[in-house]
Every structure is written in structure tokens, then in C-alpha cells.
């Protein structure tokens, strides 16, 4: 089966600019996650969707980050305006509704300068 | 809330040495447990999993046993190779499909 697709793979922007990332999960996977992974750290959950509804966005910096999952399929994560500390890899993952673990995309490496 | 604690790295081993990376967890209910691996410059890949107590997950020579009595899921491999050099993450899947990751343990295998 096709994996989780993410784009772009790399992005360099200046602080205060905006940026958007895209994720297409595995077909049929109801749950979609966005994680932020800062260099040398474990992934930190930003937001979790179940179909097109938000299950958990408690760690999403809502003053600058937003995410949507229209039609319960693909998803976009936006940062506006970006800060230097947003430099990280943004990982998308999806899972079916059962406890099978989930599949990660390759991630988008964001550098804010 | 749920939490996962991993041994701090980096762990440096010689090729063919025995590997143990400790992982313990705190959770309510009956979580599923996972090990993910992240090779340099790549995304996370599922290495193995166990969904109930006493299950043993295994893949590519790695093993981990779900021990409910000690709330542990230690990762082991009998003979590591240079190609096993990566960061290993222990993770827990609890209620509402919420996943909690450990902080990761970097493994470096030298020839």
C-alpha cells in the first residue's frame, strides 16, 4: 500500500513569514497526527484528527499554528508567522482505528532564519 | 496521564555485541506498546509492537516483551550491526488512539 505522503520535503523561510505543509495519509486511515520533532528530541504531538474532527490539539500553539483536515482525508498544517524556534521536522502519521501502531511520512524539515 | 521513560543515550557498542535499551511506562488501562526506529535523515519506522501483556514483538533480530508486572518493554538484540545505528523510540498507544513517545535512545555501533 502507498505510504503517508508529505510535501514539501524541505523548506527554508525567514522569521515572520508563513508556511504550509501538506499530508496525505494512507487510504482508509481514520486517525491523522501532526508531530513536531526538534533536533535531538522525541516527536511532540501537535494535533490529532479522527476523520475530520479534532481529538487533541492541547499542545498546538494556536496563536500561530493551525491545521485542518477537510473531508477527513488529507491535511494541511500552517504556521503564521514563523519564529526561529519553529525550526524542526514536521511529521505526519496516520493509523487505522485499531491498535496497530501507525505509519509516518518522511517529514518536512523546516528551517526558519 | 500516560508517560514513557527510556534509558538515556547515547549507547555505543561494538559490532556483534548484545543490545538492551530499557523502556518503562505509566498508563491506565491496557495500552499497546511499540518501538520505532529513526535512521539518520529519515522519518520514524515501526520496528515492532505488542498489544497485550506477555506478547513478544520481534523484527529484524530485535525483540521486546510486554511485561505488565514491571510495566516494561525493553528492546533487545543478540548481535548488533553497524547498520543498526539509529535512534530508537519507545511509544505507548493508549485510549482515544493517543500515542506517547519516549525521548529516544541513540545507538551507535562501531566496527
Distance between the termini of chain B: 41 Å
Q: What is the number of E strands of chain B? A: 12
Q: What is the general shape of chain A?
A: globular
Radius of gyration of chain A in whole Å, from Cα? Answer: 13 Å
Proportion of residues in helical segments of chain B: under 10%
Structural overview:
The complex is a heterodimer of chains A (113) and B (111). Chain A is mostly beta strands and 113 residues long. Chain A is 0% helix and 49% strand. Chain A contains no helices and eleven strands. Chain A has strands at residues 5-7, 10-13, 19-24, 31-37, 44-50, 53-56, 65-68, 75-79, 88-95, 103-104, 108-112. Chain A starts with a strand and ends with a strand. The model of chain A has no long low-confidence stretch (mean pLDDT 92). By secondary structure, chain B is mostly beta strands. Helix content of chain B is 0%, strand content 51%. Chain B has strands spanning 3-6, 11-14, 19-21, 23-26, 32-38, 44-50, 56-59, 62-65, 75-77, 86-93, 99-101, 105-110. In chain B, the strands form three sheets. In chain B, strands 2, 5, 6, 10, 11 and 12 form a six-stranded mixed sheet that branches. Chain B has a four-stranded antiparallel sheet with strand order 3-9-8-7, with no helix packed on it. In chain B, strands 1-4 form a two-stranded antiparallel ribbon. In chain B, strand 7 (56-59) and strand 8 (62-65) form a beta hairpin. The A-B interface holds A 31, 33, 41-43, 45, 48, 50, 55-56, 91, 93, 95, 97, 99-107 and B 32, 34, 36, 42-46, 49, 51, 89, 91, 93, 96-99, 101-104.
Task: Write a compact overview of the structure shown.
The complex is a heterodimer of chains A (113) and B (111). Chain A is mainly β. Chain A has no helices and 11 strands.
Overview features:
heterodimer; A: 113 residues; 7-stranded mixed β-sheet; B: 111 residues; mainly beta; 6-stranded mixed β-sheet; 51% strand
Amino acid at each position: 500500500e502507498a505510504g503517508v505522503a508529505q510535501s514539501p520535503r524541505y523548506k527554508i523561510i525567514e522569521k515572520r513569514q508563513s508556511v504550509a505543509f501538506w499530508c496525505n495519509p494512507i487510504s482508509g486511515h481514520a486517525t491523522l497526527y501532526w508531530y513536531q520533532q526538534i533536533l535531538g528530541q522525541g516527536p511532540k504531538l501537535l494535533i490529532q484528527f479522527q476523520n475530520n474532527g479534532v481529538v487533541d490539539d492541547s499542545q498546538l500553539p494556536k496563536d500561530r499554528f493551525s491545521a485542518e483536515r477537510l473531508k477527513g482525508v488529507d491535511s494541511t498544517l500552517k504556521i503564521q508567522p514563523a519564529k526561529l524556534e519553529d525550526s524542526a521536522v514536521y511529521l505526519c502519521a496516520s493509523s487505522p482505528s485499531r491498535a496497530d501502531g501507525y505509519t509516518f511520512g518522511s517529514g518536512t524539515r523546516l528551517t526558519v532564519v | 496521564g500516560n508517560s514513557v521513560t527510556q534509558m538515556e543515550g547515547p549507547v555505543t557498542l561494538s559490532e556483534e555485541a548484545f543490545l538492551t535499551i530499557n523502556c518503562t511506562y505509566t498508563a491506565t488501562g491496557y495500552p499497546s506498546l511499540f518501538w520505532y526506529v529513526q535512521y539518520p535523515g529519515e522519518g520514524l519506522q515501526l520496528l515492532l509492537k505488542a498489544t497485550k501483556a506477555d506478547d513478544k514483538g520481534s523484527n529484524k533480530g530485535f525483540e521486546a516483551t510486554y511485561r505488565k508486572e514491571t510495566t516494561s518493554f525493553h528492546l533487545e538484540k543478540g548481535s548488533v550491526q553497524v547498520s543498526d545505528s539509529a535512534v530508537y523510540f519507545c511509544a505507548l498507544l493508549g485510549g482515544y488512539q493517543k500515542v506517547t513517545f519516549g525521548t529516544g535512545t541513540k545507538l551507535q555501533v562501531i566496527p
